[in-house]
Amino acid sequence: MGSKNIQSTGLTSVEILNDYRIAFESRQASLLGRKEVLAGKGKFGIFGDGKEIPQLAMARVFKKGDWRSGYYRDQTFMFASGLMTLEEFFSQIYGDTDTTINPGTAGRVMNNHFASRSLDENGHWKDLTIQKNCSADISPTAGQMPRLLGLALASKMFRQDENTFIQEGFSNHGNEVAFGTIGDASTSEGHFFETINAAGVLQVPMAISVWDDGWGISVPQKYQTTKQSISEVLKGFQRDEKGDGLVIYKVDGWNYQKLMEVYSEGISICRTKHIPVLFHVAGLTQPQGHSTSGSQERYKSKERLDWEKAFDGITKMREWILLEKIADEETLQSLEKEATARVRKARNNAWDNYQKPIRKMRDDFLHMVDVTTCNCAKTNKIESIKEDLSVIADPIRKDIISSGRKILRLICDSCSDPSNSLKKNVTQWLENASVDNAERYNSYLYSRSDRSLAHIQVINPQYEDPAIMVPGREILRDNFDAILAKYPQVIAFGEDVGKIGGVNQSYEGLQEKYGINRVFDTGIREATIIGQAIGLAMRGFRPIAEIQYFDYLLYGLQVISDDLATLQYRTRGGQKAPLIISTRGHRLEGIWHSGSPLSMIINSVKGVHVLVPRDMTRAAAFYNTMLQTDEPALIIEPLNAYRLREKKPLNYGEFTIRPGIPEILNKGKDVTIVTYGSCVRIAQDAVAQLEGFNISCELIDVQSLEPFDIEHSIVKSLKKTNKIVFFDEDVPGGATAYMMQKVIEVQDGYKYLDAPPRTVTAKEHRAAYSTDGDYFSNPNAEDVFDAVYNLMHEYNPSKFPKIF
Ligand SMILES: Cc1ncc(C[n+]2csc(CCOP(=O)(O)OP(=O)(O)O)c2C)c(N)n1
Ligand SMILES: [Mg+2]
Description:
Blueprint: E1 5-6, E2 11-12, H1 13-38, H2 52-60, E3 67-69, H3 75-80, H4 86-94, E4 133-134, H5 145-160, E5 178-183, H6 190-202, E6 206-211, E7 215-216, E8 219-220, H7 230-233, E9 247-252, H8 256-273, E10 277-282, H9 302-310, H10 313-323, H11 329-368, H12 379-390, H13 397-410, H14 422-441, E11 469-471, H15 472-486, E12 490-494, H16 510-514, E13 519-521, H17 526-538, E14 542-547, H18 553-564, H19 567-570, E15 580-585, H20 598-602, E16 609-611, H21 616-627, E17 633-638, E18 645-647, E19 663-666, E20 671-675, H22 679-691, E21 697-701, E22 704-706, H23 713-721, E23 724-727, H24 735-746, E24 758-760, H25 770-777, H26 781-795
Parallel strand pairs: 3-4, 3-5, 5-6, 6-10, 9-10, 12-13, 12-14, 14-15, 15-17, 16-17, 20-21, 20-23, 23-24
Antiparallel strand pairs: 1-2, 7-8, 11-18, 16-22, 19-21
């Protein structure tokens, strides 16, 4: 046996046996993992059993610098590529929050959601070319696809323009492949087809493996895929003699030897020629069913279950090893025995690691609340809580904290001596624990690095004297020009962005000036425009991804919400994607160009900043600001400001604004009006009309909805006026309600109200077409006037008699 190459795999018998060991360990891990969940040690379990063998092949061709964007079945790949240990696998099941023990997700995400760490402890990029990279998984089926496109496109960009893009730490001449994995049923999703099409158009080094086990939970392929075969369906995408399309392979998932050949060939084409490849890996199984929350006997026939047993990849690989005389029965048995023991040990280590700090916490706590001296009536209750806590076999933090909070209520002043007050100690202990647990579970929604928004230095725009007035569009264009000159990693793309420079000409002439790799068109595919930007940003680019109109953000919203917004959080600061999503909104035209449904966005993209400038100088300032940070943002340009004239700044690319700092545009004493974006101009009109009626308004432009008024300046205004109106063109209960909650509840604004807080909004429906349609759908200056006037009437009816 020794180390001869086994024909066609190019592998030695030692390497093959090592692969077998990994597959076997992985299976044991799945079996034991399920048991852990059923024993109550983990809350949910989903595993990669039945999908082991092709992942060995994928791991063989996965190099340092490469990327994976996949889903929950890939544990064998993670083991085989060295991206995850068996201990880490079990730590995920328990939800261990220690990043040194559970480095991918630190307990924030269900098990088998994999991630590597791209960032060091300061939030700075590591050298991603000397490690294998795994972009952080998300649960929504096919949600990993849009990001995959960007990860692959980055390699292409790096190779195509070595003189412009800085590769250091991110790429080695674009030689990296982006590996995607997806289940057969998840290919039914639009994201999958959108990604395949875009990859074919862009010709990027993307290698997608479809793990085909014939089912999506209980729903069989005949309800999922036309012709019940994804490779059949994709034939139109197959690479042809003209050189367009994807290379598509179909291979049995239990055939180790064939898989090795196919992956070796496919990835070599993909890596060297930047041709996308798809591996349809059929005939896979799922011995334990979908997850711990159901049994497959309910929906699979006996014949199918028998077939799955016979064609189990591990069984087939074992047969092949014996047939090829790579090892004998005895060797395999001893290897399997060792592997099983190794998995048990890993489980025990992971459990000990997880439990140790919690047990210590419980011991410390019980020791602290050991009250023996007090005779107060509540001591028995305290003792009983302590007793209950002490007998919990596998305590979790909730058990201890909850006991602490209940005990605190019961402690009387004489429960311990005053110099060592129990009440004080427990309070202090709970406060400390609350800080620790916030760090464990609530940190890293936003960047905490020295490049976070908090570190932005404000630089004001400078003007000639007297200032030259130019259309807002030109300010954006000339600012993008300066940005592209200043930052080599900035690339801007979207529908119509490239050749014509955007539908509003804000990139006019910039493709000619900076080239097709810097400013370019994309297909109409919002989800993958966002995904493309995420993947590029994860590999060191600074993408500005344009969504043509605000309302069309909905097509990309799932990607923003589930992937981008959660990225830092779900990796506890392990990954980031500092991209800018650029769109135009406010006061557009009609139902699907309303530009106004802000509430639809703000509450679903926590983790992404939402900036709503009222003019193009401020929009430009926000682009400049965000490029200095390492955080993602959505910038909504106010559509009607492209043509309006503004003072031409001299320091393009430089001037910044600190998001979260509102601007007071009009000082006043009677009513505070809070608004943003294009509504500011309407409010200014209303304020002028109100002045004619001796009502003095303080007009505040919040400038950004996330972050929102971080220094609580609005409540300061309210302290003065004691009356407040929130105004925008979103639906009733939309972004005005969001602002109202911030001011009235978070900023304690209710204390200063002399009249009820009011909102002025659009109607329940989106805006009807035409100027009249707009007037009767959207709020206008008269509506703001009436709302403010009526508030004054309520406050002082004799001074402000009812108008109608
Ligand atoms: C958008 C979305 N819809 C539904 C689900 C629930 N779900 C989780 S896995 C799954 C089936 C996926 O099947 P397949 O892609 O074939 O992968 P397999 O589990 O078979 O490997 C479903 C419906 C989900 N996670 N996301
Ligand atoms: Mg499936």
